[in-house]
């Protein structure tokens, strides 16, 4: 039972409106689709949520990047660096000036203990920098052993434009490229896992590129080697920007090359063909995004086509799409009959689907709106029988009551309204049911009709049926009305 | 004056022990517990963000961001307050930051682009004009008063929990609520006239 607001308690219309508004606000909530999308985003919380990248954000990133590059060129490295030089040959002049003062260079691998008990073993030519408490591997190979971490506190290592995220494992990162090379020169990054699970993320786009299990390794594209060939090979990407990811999704774009005797996953090169890109774009997620984009842009037929294709598949995306087909047909294309058929198809495919109730309600409302009251009543009755605990029960019962009343069947209408009165919300639905029940009782010549009308007036002194209800109490309903 | 809270903030059956148990299961990586926590509190967070004035086009993302923050901070939950109180605090902080960002964005776009920012798109799920008017009026309250009013009047959080979320003494929370109610009523009356 949801209590109703006692404040504001003034008798005036403004206070009553404010009370109703507060009641409505306290009943507001996301729809099922929104909750499902939300769950997809947070189910694996190491994945960052979708971020809206406005132009200010892009501008900020660009400015920051420009400052970082300028800093690298003109200011030189400022952070504490832990480095070992492999340029100890005689005559080596460009030995990194980042040698840590507290860590004398030794010729062999060096073992460091970082915050949280993380052990890092630096190779002979490795350069690692600590930034804001997190390590960044800038060159050479560093192997980490990370004690198990609590959820919410993953250990993150940065390497070039990638983030390697772990919760407890043993793994290694190798950044190819001469440590003595230009500070902003392109370098390839490799990650291999001995124990646990490691995720590789692209820092700029916050996309997960790979999820590695023991024995697997991942290699970034060798930018320097591929750069000259890329322009000739790349064809224009497909039009929707979201549908053509710059970094393709791992499932379709990692290939096995068998390095180090273990499965090695390597990113497809930037020079992949348009067909390959289109293939990547046709992943279910991309289709769903494209369908939503089509809806936003007003291209409902395209959205319908995409949803229908997506619905052919399996899993949550297909289920959502199967429901959305009906929604697009009904709301965007004005085809209620086809929409009902689509929702029924959804129900057949997903009898216990998470959108089952939504599908039921959509069918009932659409049938009622199109005047098919027999079917609507049949569906509504079935819903009320099968869903004793549904939150939508009050709405459906009120709709059934209205349909019965419209056909002059006050007895059944009273029963249906009675169900609505058993709930406490939505307030306007309950209010209407209270009045119409009283009205129906009066029409039936039931002596309780006037009492019901008085009860309505007590509960809703400023209700929108107060005039009619007052008439019912004043004897207008003493005899049965047609 | 001592209007009771609606007591809807803590879902039925939720106790501190259950909260602690749920959080520790989440910490251990129990995905079922995490799903349970999400299912229980996502509608609450969404409703709170809506009432607190996060525009409809940002709500979904904001809600997700709150849950990512919740997950990341699970290790910091000490069980000294209800889980709902703790989540409200995170959501309130997030909503406050988002509001500041929006203000700065609006200001910059006014200064630099010399065009007013486009009006927020109407949320098709908000069927009631009454609700839109309420949102508009509530958004005119100061953040502190808005927080207390939204938590107490819309979320039904008891005042002692409201005080914890707002980080103020209970009497201050009552005082803020009093002034928020008065301002809201006055604004509503002005609007009617």
Spell out the key features of this protein.
heterodimer; A: 482 residues; alpha+beta; 14-stranded mixed β-sheet; 14 strands; elongated; disordered C terminus; B: 193 residues; mainly alpha; 8 helices; 0% strand; disordered N terminus
Polypeptide structure, described:
The complex is a heterodimer of chains A (482) and B (193). Chain A is an alpha+beta fold and 482 residues long. Helix content of chain A is 45%, strand content 15%. Chain A is built from 18 helices and 14 strands. In chain A, strands 1, 2, 3, 4, 5, 6, 7, 8, 9, 10, 11, 12, 13 and 14 form a 14-stranded mixed beta sheet that branches. Chain B contains eight helices and no strands. The longest helix of chain B has 31 residues, at 83-113.
A few lines on this structure:
Helix content of chain A is 45%, strand content 15%. Chain A has 18 helices and 14 strands. In chain A, strand 10 (198-202) and strand 11 form a beta hairpin.
List the helices and strands and how they pair.
The complex is a heterodimer of chains A (482) and B (193).
Chain A: H1 13-27, H2 32-42, H3 55-75, E1 81-83, E2 110-113, E3 119-122, E4 127-131, E5 134-146, E6 155-159, E7 162-166, E8 169-175, E9 189-195, E10 198-202, E11 207-212, E12 217-219, H4 223-226, H5 230-233, H6 250-253, E13 254-256, E14 264-267, H7 274-281, H8 284-296, H9 300-311, H10 315-332, H11 336-349, H12 356-369, H13 373-386, H14 393-406, H15 410-421, H16 427-443, H17 448-459, H18 466-476
Parallel strand pairs in A: 5-6, 12-14
Antiparallel strand pairs in A: 1-4, 2-3, 3-5, 4-5, 5-8, 6-7, 7-10, 8-9, 9-12, 10-11, 13-14
Helix pairs in contact in A: 8-9, 8-10, 9-10, 10-11, 11-12, 12-13, 13-14, 14-15, 14-16, 15-16, 16-17, 17-18
Chain B: H1 16-27, H2 31-52, H3 56-72, H4 83-113, H5 129-139, H6 143-154, H7 159-166, H8 170-192
Helix pairs in contact in B: 1-2, 2-3, 2-4, 3-4, 4-7, 6-7, 6-8, 7-8
């Amino acid at each position: 039972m949801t209590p109703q607001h006692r404040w504001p308690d003034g008798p005036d219309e403004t206070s009553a409106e404010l009370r109703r508004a507060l009641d409505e606000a306290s009943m507001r909530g996301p729809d099922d689709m929104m909750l499902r999308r939300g769950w997809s985003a947070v189910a694996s919380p190491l994945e960052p949520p979708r971020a809206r990248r406005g132009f200010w954000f892009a501008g900020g990133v660009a400015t920051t990047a420009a400052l970082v590059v300028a800093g690298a060129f003109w200011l030189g490295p400022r952070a504490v660096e832990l480095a070992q030089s492999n340029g100890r040959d005689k005559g080596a002049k460009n030995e990194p000036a980042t040698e840590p003062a507290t860590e004398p260079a030794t010729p062999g691998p060096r073992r460091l203990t970082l915050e949280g008990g993380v052990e890092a073993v630096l190779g002979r030519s490795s350069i690692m920098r600590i930034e804001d408490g997190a390590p960044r591997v800038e060159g050479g190979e560093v192997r980490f052993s990370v004690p198990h971490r609590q959820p919410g506190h993953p250990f993150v290592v940065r390497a070039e434009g990638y983030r390697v995220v772990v919760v407890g494992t043993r793994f290694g990162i190798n950044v190819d490229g001469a440590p003595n090379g230009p500070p902003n020169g392109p370098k390839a990054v490799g990650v291999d896992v001995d124990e646990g699970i490691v995720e590789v993320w692209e820092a700029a786009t916050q996309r997960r590129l790979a999820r590695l299990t023991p024995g697997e390794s991942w290699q970034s594209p060798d930018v320097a080697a591929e750069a000259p060939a890329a322009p000739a090979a790349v064809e224009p990407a497909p039009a929707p920007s979201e549908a053509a990811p710059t970094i393709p999704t791992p499932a379709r774009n990692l290939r096995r090359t068998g390095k180090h005797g273990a499965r090695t996953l390597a990113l497809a090169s930037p020079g992949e063909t348009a067909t390959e890109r289109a293939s990547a774009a046709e992943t279910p997620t991309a289709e769903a995004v494209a369908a939503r984009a089509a809806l936003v842009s007003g291209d409902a037929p395209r959205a319908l086509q995409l949803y229908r294709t997506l619905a052919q598949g399996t899993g949550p995306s297909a289920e959502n799409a199967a429901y959305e087909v009906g929604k697009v047909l009904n709301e965007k294309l004005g085809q209620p009959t086809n929409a009902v058929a689509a929702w029924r198809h959804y129900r057949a495919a997903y009898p216990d689907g998470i959108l089952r109730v939504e599908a039921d309600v959509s069918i009932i409302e659409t049938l009622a709106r199109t005047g098919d009251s027999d079917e609507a009543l049949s569906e509504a009755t079935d819903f009320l029988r099968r869903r004793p605990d549904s939150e939508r029960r009050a709405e459906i019962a009120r709709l059934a009551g209205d349909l019965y009343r419209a056909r002059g069947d006050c007895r059944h209408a009273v029963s249906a309204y009675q169900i609505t009165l058993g709930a406490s919300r939505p307030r306007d639905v309950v209010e209407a049911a209270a009045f119409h029940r009283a009205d129906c009782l009066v029409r039936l010549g039931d002596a309780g009709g006037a009492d019901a009308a008085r009860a309505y007036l007590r509960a809703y002194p400023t209700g929108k049926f107060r005039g009619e209800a007052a008439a019912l109490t004043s004897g207008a309903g003493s005899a049965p009305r047609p | 004056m001592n209007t009771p809270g609606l007591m809807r903030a803590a879902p039925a059956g939720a106790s501190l022990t259950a909260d602690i148990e749920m959080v520790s299961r989440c910490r251990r990586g129990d995905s079922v517990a995490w799903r349970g926590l999400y299912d229980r509190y996502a509608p609450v967070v969404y409703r709170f963000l809506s009432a607190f004035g996060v525009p409809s086009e940002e709500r979904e993302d904001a809600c997700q961001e709150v849950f990512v923050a919740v997950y990341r901070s699970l290790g910091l939950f000490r069980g000294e307050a209800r889980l709902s109180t703790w989540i409200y605090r995170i959501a309130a902080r997030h909503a406050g930051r988002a509001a500041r960002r929006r203000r700065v964005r609006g200001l910059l776009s006014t200064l630099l682009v010399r065009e007013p920012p486009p009006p927020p798109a109407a949320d098709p799920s908000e069927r009631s004009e009454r609700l839109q008017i309420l949102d508009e009026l509530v958004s005119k309250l100061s953040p502190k008063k808005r927080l207390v009013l939204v938590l107490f009047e819309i979320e039904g959080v008891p005042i002692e929990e409201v005080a914890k979320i707002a980080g103020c003494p209970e009497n201050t929370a009552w005082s803020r609520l009093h002034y928020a109610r008065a301002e809201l009523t006055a604004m509503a009356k002005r609007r009617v006239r």
